[in-house]
Amino acid sequence: MCTVIIDFDPGRAWPIAVLGLRDEQPGRAWDPPGAWWPGLGDGVRGIHDREAGGAWLATNDDAPGGPRAAVVLNRREDLDMPAAGWTSRGVLPLEAVTTGVDAEDARSARSWNLVELRPDGVAVTSWDGSSLRSIDVAPGLHLVTHEGPDHLDVPRVHRWRPAFLDVPSPIGPLDGATAASWEPWLRTLRSTTSVPADADEAIVRVDDHDGLRLASLSVTALSLGTDGAVLRNARLAEPGRLPEEFVWE
């Protein structure tokens, strides 16, 4: 199950920093960040799921009201399939950064948490199969998992949130003058691999769930400011295991 680390500091030039671990079936094909949805506008980019056509994470530099980003995480509820079939959760980030999430799509998908990011705010919306709930997230550092933000009863949050709190957060994009500011988070991420990938406390994970094997497939670094989003992604050649050197796309 995915893990997303967020730092929100409204006083920074780049208020939003996100480090995302995407967990998915290793055989499911996907594409690196790009403008895979030309019908949604030139500013929409993201990580493209080839099977369903949606996005795990999407950004839009041209969104009404300013740049925004969104990322979807699975929840654990086992829901009954609607008569019309499931809506892919991958439509939700794309809707979030363009028109806004459609309520019918939201309720006809398997359970989810959606993190919506703007330079002036962060919100997490959850669908558990019975109700839609949305909360605004305060400035500071947060770990979001299948349970939502900062649930300390989730072992990986309890174990590793203090470690991320103890190091400086990135102050800008993972390139140019601010690239080095990502090193404390990346070192901390590497330190989490001291536990096995199938351990409850693992962030870089291999997870058997509902008869499926899910594993961490990529690491995403996102910076969001008033001028737009800078998105970098590193594919893990071996699911559930960090490479010696990240190759950023």
From TrEMBL:
This is Transport and Golgi organization protein 2. InterPro entries: TANGO2. The lineage of its organism: Bacteria, Bacillati, Actinomycetota, Actinomycetes, Micrococcales. It comes from the Bacteria. Pfam families: TANGO2 (PF05742). It comes from Plantibacter flavus.
